[in-house]
Design brief:
By secondary structure, this protein is mostly beta strands. The chain has 3 domains: about 70 residues, no CATH class; about 110 residues, no CATH class; about 110 residues, Ribonuclease Inhibitor (Leucine-rich repeat, LRR (right-handed beta-alpha superhelix), Alpha-Beta Horseshoe), CATH 3.80.10.10. Helices cover about 5% and strands about 25% of the residues. The chain has a 14-stranded parallel beta sheet with strand order 1-2-3-4-5-6-7-8-9-10-11-13-15-16, covered by helices on one side. The longest helix has 9 residues. The radius of gyration is 24 Å and the shape is elongated.
């Protein structure tokens, strides 16, 4: 498998500067073996060279550039590409990416919004985005049966991204926001996510955990950080597979007895909360191995909880 990166393409030169992007692509084109993987380093103000289209057997492409870069419209002609990673900021995500019908992995960073054409990528398995604003996401994601993992970091959340909640076979969903000025309410019903195993949300003000989340039957790990949670009092009995619960950096004052229904729970992270009370019923969490109460206002832990048979890590302070 031929793989070319900037540091490999500059062996003969005395200058520490990498060759220009055109030279990197031409070197790939004249290599003895077809170039299947390419790391293309752009200099300041340098455009993505059109010669890239000639790499007809390219499967994986990583673009590295300082500052803002523009993906050309012809990027959609790179048929056969299975992985695209852009280590630079895009002014906007081009709709032409929706033409990459073999793309399985996509990682981008943009100051703009979600491009609807991304929801049409039929082979997409892994999506990793950093956006300026996250709002509407097309319901077309309901047809993306191969989509397994979505991670989105956004400066601002403006609306509920409903398209993410209909993906039928999604196993990992991670959403992180710096602000949520509109404070959109979490939906009461989730039509998809029946296969979801890992859910991590940070920066979405919720006040309380939406009951619909504990109805996700396959959920193994739930993280809700910086969500302004006031209470954990809800019926946890349907979260039968939950083993990891992280509710750190919220506004919780107590850990209620209802959590004791999580009979498979191994890790409970409640650090950075104004917690003053643990319900003694938590002593029924017989599978618990880690209890993190760092940076809380708790003065002591009830002895039955400290005596849990599998508890190996108890942090408080």
């Amino acid at each position: 498998m031929a793989r070319l990166a900037a540091e490999h393409l500059n062996r003969a030169g005395a200058s520490p500067l990498p060759p220009c992007a055109v030279e990197q692509v031409r070197t790939a084109l004249t290599a003895d073996e077809p170039c299947l993987e390419l790391e293309l380093v752009l200099g300041p103000g340098e455009a993505v060279p059109t010669e890239l289209i000639a790499l007809t057997e390219l499967h994986e492409l990583r673009l590295v550039a300082p500052g803002v870069v523009e993906l050309p419209r012809w990027i959609g002609r790179l048929r056969g590409l299975s992985s695209l990673e852009v280590d630079a900021e895009l002014a906007e995500i081009p709709a032409a990416l929706g033409q990459l019908d073999t793309l399985e992995r996509l990682r981008l960073r943009s100051a703009g919004t979600f491009e609807p054409a991304l929801a049409e990528l039929p082979a997409l398995v892994e999506l990793d985005l950093e956006l300026g604003v996250l709002g509407d996401i097309p319901l077309a994601l309901a047809r993306r049966s191969k989509l397994d993992s979505v991670r989105i970091r956004a400066t601002t959340l403006t609306r509920v991204p409903l398209g993410l909640l209909v993906a039928p076979n999604l196993r990992t969903l991670a959403l992180e926001f710096r602000s949520a000025d509109a404070r959109p309410a979490f939906p009461r019903l989730i039509p998809g996510l029946s296969q979801l195993e890992v859910l991590a949300i940070s920066g979405w003000p919720l006040d309380e955990i939406p009951p619909v989340l504990v109805e996700l039957g396959a959920l193994d790990s739930l993280t809700l950080r910086h969500c302004e949670l006031q209470t954990l009092a809800l019926d946890w009995r349907r979260a039968t597979k939950l083993r990891h619960l992280d509710v750190s950096h919220n506004c919780l004052r107590r850990l209620p007895a209802s959590i004791a229904a999580l009979t498979r729970l191994r890790e409970l992270v409640a650090a950075h909360n104004p917690i003053t009370e643990l319900d003694p019923a938590l002593a029924r969490l017989h599978a618990l191995e880690r209890l993190d109460l760092d940076h809380t206002e708790l003065r002591s832990v009830p002895a039955p909880i400290e005596a849990l048979p599998k508890l190996r890590v108890l942090s408080r302070g």
